[in-house]
Amino acid sequence: MDNLPKGTLVNLKDLSIEEIIEILDTAEEFLAGKRVDLSDKLVANLFFEPSTRTRYSFEAAESRLGCQVLSFAKEASSMLKGESFYDTVKTFSQYVDAIIIRHSEDNYYEELIGKIPVPLINGGDGCGNHPTQSLLDLLTIRQEFGKFEGLKIVIVGDISHSRVAHTNTEVMRRLGMEVFLSAPPEFQDDEEDYVDLDEIIGEVDIVMLLRIQFERHQDKLNMSMEEYHRRYGLTLERYEKMQDHAIIMHPAPVNRGLEIDDSLVECEKSRIFKQMKNGMYIRMAVLYRALTKGDENDSY
After folding, report:
1. Which of 39, 72, 115, 275 could form a disulfide with 46 if both were Cys (CB 3.0 to 4.6 A apart)?
2. pLDDT digits (tens, 9 = 90+) for 242-257
3. Where are the domains of the chain?
4. Banded model confidence at residue 298, pLDDT cuts 50, 70, 90
5. How many CB atoms lie within 10 A of CB 85?
6. Is domain 12-129+277-292 classified as CATH 3.40.50.1370?
7. What gap in Å lies between CA 286 and CA 137, rounded to an integer?
8. Residues 29, 4: contact at Cβ < 8 Å?
9. Which of 13, 253, 192 is nearest to 109 (CA)?
10. 120 versus 49: which is more confidently predicted?
């Protein structure tokens, strides 16, 4: 995106395939033991909505890179006195070398374009984008299959409210994957076609379940939790229909017994906790890119 500092990552659409692969390769280097010292860098974590995996994997990544960290708490900030989101971010940008933001508003970063002097990393915006989650998903898939081209994935659940689904659908198709979507009518986006989970589950390489995000829509799910699990969840019966080599993914947090049978969360095919671990290495790579991009002696 124009008018943002080098190393900024707000949307994967802004990155070429080559840039995406470079981030995955850097994450693999960190996984293999690559060490760097960024103790002269200061990073701000601005989380305006609750988060466990994204927030704390960023903190773990920052710690492993040696960065110093400022963590934001809205309830202890001048936002309670009426300070705007923009002024809050602009204030932090005067102190730090990079800013990570998680916010409930779609495309919150648009009002910051051209006005914030340090790289921004999007930790998730509303129902729109979650670039580091998609990158960790891609890393997990590449570790499993060694490629993207020709793989088939079905993404199941709350598609319309899922920034994970929106980001993954775009980037996976760009990488040559075939993406199928399955969801109840109330969770569908109008511009997409949808498939019956039972008809496709035996054909795909990856089954990705999505959390039902009750906090993101006003009406409750138009069926009981038991009915949702029966019609759209990964039940034991559906698990038996999966191909031998197929894997299970979920961005988490997991509603056990709703999106996926409790006994399958840590089963042989599940890569859910591997995704979480990969999240730290992806966020190390993204931070490394943001904090060193443009350095004269750096490959970035």
Report:
1. 72
2. 999 999 999 999 999 9
3. 12-129+277-292, 132-275
4. very low
5. 17
6. yes
7. 14
8. no
9. 13
10. 120
